[in-house]
Design goal:
heterodimer, A: 265 residues, mainly alpha, 2 domains, three-stranded antiparallel sheet, B: 365 residues, alpha/beta, 3 domains, two-stranded antiparallel sheet, 14 helices, globular, coiled coil (chain A), Secreted protein (chain B)
Chain lengths: 265, 365
């Protein structure tokens, strides 16, 4: 057994050196691959050393260390999270919801080019897909920075006014809490996510203890009450303007701002 | 202005940012720094050419940490910040507006900020948070563009500058140096916003001199906020900026042909020898203090100079002030060892120095 341990240790050392070389050469792809190999080798080493002493086996460790994978394509996973949230959301929120309720295989950088790819697909073959992951529109009808939305939502839900970030945050908290209530065995990650969000909603959390979904829903609805009418009016105004002035592509992906034209002049 | 252009030489002037302006306020007595900034001389380039490159520039890790924390505070329409301001300033529940100035192209940000601030000041449609704003400030005839983290507008019609920093506040205490640096930087933003308000015809006093400083609390990543009064920093900064517009007084007594020019040859290497440049710089007095090491590009050069002449500046402001009337490190040592007879007015400090020397001897014995 100790021979295979020696071999593994040599392999780990080699891999570490290679990771360093790859990072130095700024080869991100290769570095990531090598790091995954390194993690596997380290896991194998852990297992080999456990096998020598069965008393030291920690149940569940393997599942914790194994990186999650999902068979769904990235856009499907993002769509899943957006359906749960029901509001235009930032990439970080989508990743957090995916990690809390679904596969947890989504990473922030994977989402950066998503909107651009969707736009390209829509331009070459409009309405070919049942849904598109599109942009939320600002009051200037330009795409809001970093927000992802679903093309099947009504325009009023996809535009954002000054009050919308808060309204959407509270709505998202309510939706997550409702989903948690439906689950018989709520995943601990999801409870943590809700507790974190509840910290910023007055009356929803006491101290740092895990929060009760019912309390969160009540507190968030109470604050929503205050903002909802004003926000709906602002959104309706922007949505009407967007409906009149924009073409189909722009209605989904936003009118180009001057900054995108700047390269041309 | 011609003399400043000559000081800089035939290269374009360097733009100022908030960090540079804050550093200026950190050491208001330094004529060398004031003159180089007024002329827009490339201080980093100068220091490197002299062979005294500055040891800083933020570490990549610190920058990443700062950005991650800032993103945390600002995510979901400043949800964390909203909680903090509700606790700290008693912000009413219905005030939650959020405007991202960056939705317009980067070249329009300054004018868009101006429009939004004007509307807010007229109470037309006031949002609470203005994210990614861009302010401008006139410095010695040039426009410097500044980017505060967040502008907050709230209750009572006053604006607050929000400064997000990633050093932690442990048990209600943070490192005083870092807070001082943050306060200086925030003072620059307050000044710029006040200038903008005055320009728009509103009362500049509507920009609060209390800055909201947001830092991680204790050892966790949870943000906490506190108010920092920056009136003192504002006063220093104003004085310094006025001084920069009146540099002619600093230029008095300097030879008219003096220049810090870094005119490059075809390969981009400055044509002037380092020795000549050092001589030219030596004509303008610097006031070196150890804190320069964290703020000024020229710090290594000035420290070397202070060392060469045995100046007491090296030991920090406090010691230098205590050693007032003693001309240098050599004299102080002589007084301590009793080899120099104290002159008039030096008896007091000589006694302290001799006592310190005796303590040291006894410790080492």
């Amino acid at each position: 057994m100790s021979e295979s341990l020696d071999a593994l240790e040599r392999r780990i050392a080699e891999l570490r050196a290679e990771v360093r070389r790859a990072v130095k050469a700024r080869d991100g792809m290769r570095a990531r691959q090598l790091r995954a190999d390194l993690r596997r080798a380290e896991l194998a080493w852990d297992e080999a050393i456990m096998a020598e002493d069965p008393a030291a086996i920690v149940p569940g460790l393997r599942e914790l260390q194994e990186p999650a994978t999902s068979l769904l394509p990235i856009r499907e996973q993002v769509h899943q999270a957006l359906l749960l949230l029901g509001v235009p959301s930032a990439a970080r929120m989508v990743v957090a919801v995916n990690a809390a309720f679904f596969s947890g295989a989504l990473r922030g950088p994977q989402l950066t080019s998503l909107r651009r790819d969707e736009e390209r697909s829509f331009r070459s073959d409009p309405y070919a897909r049942p849904y598109y992951l599109c942009a939320a529109l600002t009051d200037r009808l330009s795409p809001a920075r970093g927000l992802l939305a679903d093309s099947t939502w009504p325009l009023e839900a996809r535009v954002v006014g000054p009050l919308s970030p808060r309204v959407d945050y509270l709505t998202a908290a309510v939706r997550i809490a409702e989903h948690l209530e439906r689950l018989a065995d709520p995943p601990p990650g999801a409870v943590r996510l809700l507790s974190r969000m509840a910290q910023n909603i007055p009356g929803a959390a006491e101290g740092f203890a895990p929060t009760d979904p019912t309390t969160v829903i009540r507190a968030a609805r109470a604050e929503l009450e205050v903002h909802l009418a004003a926000d709906a009016a602002q959104r309706a105004e922007v949505a009407a303007r967007a409906g009149e002035q924009l073409t189909d592509v722009e209605r989904l992906f936003g009118a180009s701002t001057l900054s995108t034209l700047r390269g041309a002049c | 202005m011609n003399r400043l252009d000559r000081l800089r030489g035939p290269v374009p002037p360097r733009a100022h940012d908030a960090r540079a302006l804050a550093a200026l306020a950190a050491n208001p007595g330094c004529a060398r720094r004031a003159l180089m900034d007024a002329a827009g001389v490339d201080k980093d380039g100068t220091a490197r050419h002299l062979g005294f490159p500055a040891p800083f520039g933020q570490s990549q890790f610190a920058i990443t940490r700062g950005n991650v924390f800032e993103a945390l505070v600002k995510e979901n329409g400043c949800a964390e910040l909203l909680r903090l301001l509700r606790e700290l300033l008693g912000l009413p529940i219905d005030q939650v507006g959020y405007q991202d100035v960056e939705t317009v192209g980067s070249h329009l940000r300054a004018s868009h900020t101006r429009t939004l601030i004007d509307r807010a000041a007229r109470e037309l449609d006031a949002a609470v948070f203005y994210d990614h704003p861009m302010l401008s400030l006139q410095i010695a005839g040039h426009t410097a563009y500044l980017e505060p983290d967040v502008l907050a507008f709230q209750l009572g019609g006053r604006f607050h500058i929000v400064e997000i920093k990633s050093f932690s506040v442990i048990d209600g205490q943070a490192e005083p140096e870092k807070v001082a640096a943050a306060a200086r930087q925030a003072a620059v933003y307050v000044l710029a916003l006040r200038a903008l308000m005055a320009d728009l015809g509103h009362d500049p006093e509507r920009v609060s001199h209390d800055v909201v400083l947001v830092c991680p609390e204790n050892f966790a990543n949870r943000p906490t906020a506190s108010l920092v009064d920056v009136r003192r920093q504002l006063a220093v900064l104003k004085r310094q900026l006025v001084r920069m517009t009146r540099v002619d007084r600093l230029l008095e007594g300097l030879p008219p042909e003096l220049t810090f020019s870094l005119e490059p040859d075809d390969e981009g290497v400055p044509t002037r020898s380092a020795r000549e440049l050092a001589e030219a710089l030596g004509r303008v007095p610097a006031r070196y203090a150890p804190d320069c090491l964290s703020t000024c590009d020229m710090c290594m050069f000035c420290r070397d100079e202070a060392r060469a002449c045995g100046s007491t500046d090296l030991l920090g402001r406090q010691v230098r002030d205590q050693l007032g009337g003693v001309s240098g490190a050599a004299e102080a040592l002589g007084l301590a060892e009793g080899t120099i007879v104290p002159g008039e007015g030096q008896e007091e400090i000589a006694r302290v120095l001799r006592l310190a020397n005796r303590l040291r001897e006894e410790c080492l014995r």
